[in-house]
Design a protein that fits this description.
Strand content: 5-15%
Largest sheet: 5 strands, antiparallel
Helix content: 40-55%
Low-confidence stretches: 1-6
Order of helices and strands: HEEEHEEHHHEEEEHHHHH
Number of strands: 9
Mean pLDDT: 94
Number of helices: 10
Length: 330
């Protein structure tokens, strides 16, 4: 893998950010606003000539250069089909990925917006139409350098790390090991019920905060977690509330989605399984980043007894939910 020598975000000073942009011919005016991002470091930067830009500095050693460029290329495919996404800007030499003092970074046009109203049926149908268009493009190729969302990558590997990392308190270790094993068995049953469902290139992290809404409609941002996986992964995170609420919301999403892309109803068996995998993966994600000071500040409750007690209860609830019928017959 083509990765840089590890660099610490503690060395990413405002001067370094501005010098990085200078190195590709973009000259900031000194205005720098840190945007909400934990995995990477993202800044809105005022420019001497023109509107502000957004610069993303990638967490060292997370992705290979090829994987980052594969994400950029996927988003550019969507742009070419006039799907509202935000692509990485190419410099004069045609590159979208740049390096400066041990950091890799990309620059994006700034697109504002507000959170979508996910309780509104028309909004959900609109989002569904664009997700259908994204997935119709995602089906055309496969990622070669990005992983697949499956039981191994989002369940077995992260849970194995957690159980050996020392983060789970000793007196809860046996309980957590047991409940994770039961949860992964439940996930496997869900995948068995779904059968041989297809995978495609996904947004991968399609929750409400990664959709910005304007009077012209939605645009999708932050494809950093893009990977191969089942289509329903980009749908279920837009669902919330009680079961009857989620049935209505999913119906609204699919009303728009299926205008552009077929949906395999067998994937309905995967919704709670994918939620379970995300919960396990999320805890491991925080644990793996715990040496980054930003994580201790953002997640002060993580390294506590109460946190792990709650995770045991949460997975116990998920085990029961995974054995329920899907939101409607698949």
């Amino acid at each position: 893998m083509n990765l840089l020598t590890p660099a610490s975000f503690s060395t990413l000073t405002p001067d370094t950010v501005l010098d990085a942009l200078d190195s590709i011919g973009l000259h900031g005016d000194g205005r720098l606003l840190a945007l909400n991002s934990y995995e990477n470091r993202v800044y809105q930067i005022g420019m001497d000539d023109g509107p502000p830009l957004v610069a993303k500095f990638y967490r060292p050693q997370r992705w290979s250069d090829a994987a980052i460029l594969e994400e950029h290329a996927f988003v550019e495919e969507l742009v070419e089909r006039e799907i509202p996404v935000v692509p990485a800007s190419a410099s004069k030499d045609g590159n979208t990925l740049h390096q400066f003092h041990g950091f890799r970074f990309a620059v994006f046009p700034r697109h504002g917006g507000r959170s979508p109203e996910l309780e509104d049926s028309a909004t959900l149908e609109w989002l569904g139409r664009f997700l259908g268009r994204i997935h119709s493009v995602g089906q055309l190729k496969t990622f070669q350098h990005r992983p697949t969302l499956n039981i191994t990558t989002f369940g077995i590997e992260p849970s194995t790390y957690l159980l050996s990392s020392g983060f789970v308190p000793e007196d809860l270790l046996a309980a957590y090991r047991s409940i994770v094993a039961q949860a992964l068995e439940g996930v496997q049953r869900c995948f068995d019920r779904a059968g041989d469902v297809g995978t495609l290139r996904l947004h991968g992290d399609c929750h409400g905060s990664n959709v910005l809404w304007t009077d012209a409609g939605p645009h999708f941002v932050d494809f950093d977690d893009s990977r191969m996986g089942p289509a329903v992964q980009d749908l279920w995170m837009l669902l919330s509330g009680e079961r009857h609420d989620m049935v209505r919301q999913l119906s609204d999403l699919l009303a728009g989605y299926e205008d552009f892309c077929d949906f395999d109803p067998r994937e309905l068996h995967l919704i709670e399984a994918l939620r379970t995998l995300r919960l396990i993966h999320y805890s491991a994600w925080i644990a793996r980043r715990w040496d980054d000071p930003a994580f201790a500040v953002a997640f002060p409750w993580f390294n506590t007894q109460r946190y792990w007690q709650d995770r045991v209860l949460e997975l116990r609830e998920q085990i029961a939910l995974m054995d329920e019928q899907p939101l409607w017959p698949a």
